[in-house]
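User: Structure tokens for both sequences below?

Assistant:
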Amino acid sequence: MVTNNGIVYLIALPLIGSLLLLLLGRKADKWGHLLATALSASSFAVGLFQLSEMLSRETENRPVTQKLFNWISVGSFNVDASLLLDQLSICFVLLITGVGTLIHIYSISYMSHDKDRRRFFAYLNLFIAAMLLLVLGDSYLNLYVGWEGVGLASYLLIGFWNQKQAYATASKKAFVMNRIGDMGLSFAIMIAFASLGTVSFSGVKEQAHYASEATMTAIGVALLIAAVGKSAQFPLQAWLGDAMAGPTPVSALIHAATMVTAGVYLIVRSNFVFEAAPTAQLLVLIVGAITLMFGAIVGTAKDDIKKVLAASTMSQIGYMILGAGLGPAGYAFAIMHLLTHGFFKAGMFLGAGSVMHGMNDEVNMRKYGALRKFMPITFITFGLGYLAIIGVPPFAGFYSKDMIIETAFNAGGLKGILLGSTALLGAAITAFYMTRVMILTFTSPKRWDEDQHPHESPILMWAPMAILAIGSVTSGFLLSRGNALKHWLEPLFEEHGEHQELLAPIVVSGLTLLMVAIGVASAVIKYQLSDVDEVAPESVSTFTRFARRDLLQDDINEALFMRPGQAITSALVKIDERVVDGAVRGIGKIAIGSGAQLRKVQTGYVRSYAALILVGAVALIAAIWVVTQ
């Protein structure tokens, strides 16, 4: 393995920016945002340099490491604080720093009137640094540090406007639900340490060939729980919609390009675990299939533009998880969809922020309409992202999503038919709800009040949107041309035999485009060719009511966990008060009562003491007499 001492600069630059802005306080208000953006861009430049260096080496020498220091050394167990930059992590490095820098630039204008802009940029830099540590750590323990750092940064960013109670609650909800998932990663590390004696990626990979299937299944399930929490997958998906409470750039950074993809990274990085644990791998498939449908259905019923995009993110991550669960045949396509999604979803989130900027922070799409005339750049850039996500050729999503659908069908047997059909149906629903967003926002008749004056955003906002739109158009073609990304990642995965072909690629593409056309047509008929109510109608189907309430995810969590948890807590409090505290108080009362009784003996009268001495002496003489008889 080649050693490279420059990897640490990727993390150090944004971390230094975050620390400086937090420590200098108000002194950095005037230039803090510029420093943070420059350091994020510098990290991206370092990433490009590392990529060029990697391309100049032979395939077997492309992964590089850097040891920072010896972290844990106990007996034969050693963990170094080390970084690993290989073909997989460099993809994430460029996505995190590239898209992250564009979001920094966008935020300069978007947050220009916020008195705490400097602190906001400090949190952005902290998030970038933590996410980079997550994908560059060479062991599960190093990854865990970045994993928790991302959780902290996301909590700070989602609750940035915590003076609003709803926003503070949303940040706590995201934090708590992520902690539930994080327990999975903790258990995986502990099981690996206890059973395999190592927590490094290379060590676990080596031991996986000798460990029992039960051990690897336990590690795999624990890792899946972690991925489910961080990537907002079923059944820990309830936090994602509420997390839209933060500033819109936060939504683009956390929920489109980086944090929610960490679960996909964890599963793909741990491919050797799931290859050795078929049961855990099957669970990955089930989670991905359920979530891609769950998010798509929720997206059809939301009127808040950001919450529609959040549901869409949940669904698209479901596609990635599904691809990752398909094993070596699907790993590269899961990462490809992750990368293309980073472009078009970040672009659409920033586009949503642009719409809100021009509409006095209004998020209800039923109060939009005809904005294409007033916000032409936002309309075009958002529209290109829309074409990418629904999978219209030659836009990015066509290449990445189609490959996941095709690989799902080729999984074979009933499993392949079920997974492929689910993915196809998800594509149709995606086309429906995303077309609904386009119509309600840009092409339907206006429904906003006369006192609103929609206008295009400044260049610092639309320039990043334009760059992301270019990625929405070109990234899929570039990554799939000659199977470029697949060949790039191949050295990290072990292929297992030939893959069967249930449906030819042209057939899958034809079926997918047919389903997309059905979804688009349905939305056009319902929303473009019909009048749109300015207020969501109350008389809707039971299914729509459930979808509006996120398919009752909060109700179910409340019934299964919150209420029973409150009851258990209340019972424990009563036990503590009545049994534990009661016992302590009882002992105290006994001591006080005994003292009060003994106090009566201490009268202070000499005659009483003399009488007691006499009685004692007589009793003692009597006792001696009885014993000696």
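Moving on to the next sequence.
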Amino acid sequence: MKDIFEKLGLFYLGKQKDDALCLYKSKDLTTHAMIVGMTGSGKTGLGITLLEEAAIDNIPAIVIDPKGDMGNLCLAFENLSPQEFAPWSTEPQKSAKLWKEGLKASHQDLQRVAKFAKIEKTIYTPGSSAGVSVDILSSFEAPSQEVIEDSDAFTSLISSTVSSLLTLISFSASNPHTKEHLLLSNILYHFWIQGVSLNLEDIINYVAEPPFKKVGVLSLATFYKQSDRMKLAVAINGLISSVGFASWLQGEALNIEDILYDDAGNAKVAIFNIAHLNDAQRMFFVTLLLNKYLNWMRKQSGSSVLRSLLYMDEIYGFFPPVKNPPSKEPMMLLLKQARAFGVGVVLSTQNPSDIDYKGASNIGSWFIGKLQTKQDIQKVMQGMALDTPRDKKFVSQMIASLRGREFLLKNIHHKSLLQFSTRWVLSYLKGPITKNDIKKLMHNKKVTQVKEKLPLKKKLSFSCKKLSLTSLEDESEKAFLIRVQNSLKELRDAKVEKLQARYETKYMRLEKRKTRLSQRLTKEKSDVSRKTTNAFIDIGLTLLGAFFGRKTSTLSSIRKGSSAFKKTRGVFKEKGDVSRVNSQLLKLQDEIEKLDRKFETEVFKIDENFSLKNYTITSLQKNSTESQ
């Protein structure tokens, strides 16, 4: 069954209480997810598990890391040797052994670790040179036409951008009707509606001398005197002229496409560590990043599959239920609009009251870990929208009984609740990643501080005739390649869903036969019949059950059906009147295994048919006489 989960678009999250696998459809994350649990509940481990599974499936992720825990994603060791653990563990021998045993117990091997280890991961440190620096000068560039044409998105972009800048210079940002807020908003609107980008230097100059004579119906002089405007200009100038702010103006630009994908269209993991920033700086950067992500998202075509992930570890303060910090508007827009573009948002928090209730209504999957108070449990159940008092009481009891690394999953795409314990993570969890750790991890990463724009000798267009796709105006080869890969993934998933529908009837038939045989065996009161019943129940219905959202055995038992039945043969020999049941059980087992092999073969065939290597991409010169 190796690699079958990836080809089915399933995330392997852990095991259920009866040792059945917990598998989660990646496309379900397009309706977003919330991870809730107190300290020690295992939130970080579950978050890292989701991100590992996404990366293995070539789904890129942006990770906002306020605490410094998510940098552990960079600690995946291909050989799991003590030498690899040595720089990060005080007991490398013990750590290496622990990780090998943990991965083996969760049915994962070195090949899976190596696959994840090869995926490019970058720790960005805005305002610091510890990791990869971020240049925010481009953060005031004009949004795409798609955003400008969406009045809600455009208004939110302007408002949140202005609020984040005012927060950074210690001006009031909560009231959008202040003179400072209105002036800056009008400046951005004036230029952005024309497609003109700005930087902080431009903004300072236009605060001093705005490009318009009126704000509303009032003259500029009446609305905001020049002497007062200069105070605002001086405040922004003081910010960018400070020695400490210099690190914000160098490094990689916030180009979301480059952050998410390499030149070959392979997924990357971008970790934005903001643990070193103060509250105002965190709010400023997170708001800019969310707006950048929204702008990129709106330029994408619609998608029914999970295209990318935005993960935020500890949402506290960024999306509160009562206040309106700058980060709240873009986050709300993401939760409302992202599904149509195949973008998933995963938020993590210790306290369910940290999230706005309107935002919670847009979240489809709730991963609930151990909670300390009845109030927290009640808050979570409100977000889960449970129907009856009986349901609430039952779920409340389940949550109260959870232990570390145990979670309750409520997924709107499935009727039943699911309790599971998380699998062993591929990454080594050393604890919070410090500045020195980041320096070590990013030491050998070559970063282009300013990407030089070479003169273009010709403009190219790209096409994939087999998919009837051609590049859009000014679409780069990389962007076109990513679009082709997303199209192939959508076609693959559609074929797999049709395959699922075909096998559903066959599966149901086996399920009914299993139930009938189980009922017959449980009627036997002797020790022999009890043994046979237990042996049969241990076998399960393997991968098909997992894919169709039903119970399944663990990976280690997927190929153990035959041996389990062999054990029952001796029992059946002791009692001749059940020999016919023995024969039926053995025949059923053969059918199960044949169906498994056939299903697996067809899945691999579908995956191979929609592999990028089978789809040629050609390039053509748009205008052979044009050069730059």
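User: Anything stand out in the second?

Assistant: Residues 227 and 459 are 49 Å apart (CA to CA).
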